[in-house]
Structure formats: structure tokens, C-alpha cells
């Protein structure tokens, strides 16, 4: 796999067509999505040069670029946590534990935390595919989240959610019945 095909998996999320009207406006105006997209490119290139085609120099170069952009945006997202097609909608304090594993097609809104409870031994969340994590949500501890779960804004999830396509809200997070 080369770097272009590796990056193409995520690029279609932000801009379905290269040099489209949206892409040009974001480039000229340097909008929020422009900076998030640059962060995602640096993150994916760091992952590529760490795991697919190892190169220490390029790994550290893109890690530094990612960290500089991450400080601007408020992101702490280590390489290797997310599978393909990560969509971040807003900037602002997104903190991910380096041991967390998040599946494909995940959507994250701003001010989220996916991490441990601070206990020993350190356990981190495992999140399935197609999960939507709302604004200000927190997923803490060694919990498992099933595929297709929607976690509401401001929810704090500390227990496993094993029902697929569930909607989780509240503090502590609980599943609301679907109609």
C-alpha cells in the first residue's frame, strides 16, 4: 500500500472531490475544517511511516507536525488508535488514551475524552465501527462499545454497551429504548 491510497481512505470524508468548491473555499479562508484536515493528514502520515512503511525520520517529522496542529486545535490523538474514516466535526479538547482502540467510520464531536479511569492496571476503551460520539461525551475505563452506537452529548460511559445501534445518554450513560 502506498501513501496515496492510505490517505485516500480519509480524504473522501472531508472533500468528496479534490479541487471542489468546498475544498477551495476552505483553503482560501483557512476554515476550521481546513485545519482539522491538515491534522488528519499529519496523523495518517505518522501512522503510515510508523506501521506500514517504517521510517524514523518521517515518523518523527509528521508526529511533530501533528502535535503542533494538535495544540492549535486542542487534540491529543496518538497514532494507531483509530481505524480508517475518522471524522472530527469540531476542534476543542479531544483527548484519546494511547491504548484505546476505535473502529472504522467513527465520528467525534468536540470536547470528548476517551481514556482510562486512572486505576491500576490501566484499562482503555474498545469502540466498534460506525460509532458517533457527541459533544462533551466521555468514555472511561475498560469498556466495550458495540458497532453503530450513538453516544449523546455530555454523556459519561463507564459500563459496557454491547447492544448494536443503541443510543446512550446521561450521566452515567444508559441506553434509551428505540421506538
What does this protein look like?
The structure is a single chain. The strands form 3 sheets. A 6-stranded mixed β-sheet has the order 2-5-8-11-13-14. The chain has a 5-stranded parallel β-sheet with strand order 1-3-6-9-12. Strands 4-7-10 form a 3-stranded parallel β-sheet, with no helix packed on it. It contains 4 helices and 14 strands. The chain has helices at 3-14, 21-29, 32-52, 56-73, and strands at residues 75-76, 87-88, 94-96, 101-102, 107-108, 113-115, 126-127, 132-133, 138-140, 144-145, 150-151, 156-157, 167-169, 174-176. It is an alpha/beta fold. The longest helix has 21 residues, at 32-52. Helix content is 34%, strand content 18%.
Amino acid at each position: 500500500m502506498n501513501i496515496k491510497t492510505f490517505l485516500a481512505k480519509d480524504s473522501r470524508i472531508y472533500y468528496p472531490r479534490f479541487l471542489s468548491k468546498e475544498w477551495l473555499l476552505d483553503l482560501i479562508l483557512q476554515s476550521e475544517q481546513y485545519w482539522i484536515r491538515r491534522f488528519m493528514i499529519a496523523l495518517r502520515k505518522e501512522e503510515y511511516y510508523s506501521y506500514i512503511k517504517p521510517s524514523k525520520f518521517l515518523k518523527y517529522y509528521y508526529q511533530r507536525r501533528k502535535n503542533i496542529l494538535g495544540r492549535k486545535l486542542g487534540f491529543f490523538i496518538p497514532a494507531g488508535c483509530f481505524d480508517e474514516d475518522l471524522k472530527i466535526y469540531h476542534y476543542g479538547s479531544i483527548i484519546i488514551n494511547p491504548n484505546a482502540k476505535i473502529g472504522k467510520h467513527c465520528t467525534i464531536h468536540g470536547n470528548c475524552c476517551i481514556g482510562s479511569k486512572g486505576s491500576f492496571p490501566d484499562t482503555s476503551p474498545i469502540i466498534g465501527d460506525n460509532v458517533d460520539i457527541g459533544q462533551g461525551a466521555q468514555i472511561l475505563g475498560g469498556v466495550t462499545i458495540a458497532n453503530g452506537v450513538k453516544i449523546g452529548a455530555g454523556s459519561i460511559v463507564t459500563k459496557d454497551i454491547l447492544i448494536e445501534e443503541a443510543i446512550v445518554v446521561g450521566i452515567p450513560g444508559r441506553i434509551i429504548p428505540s421506538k
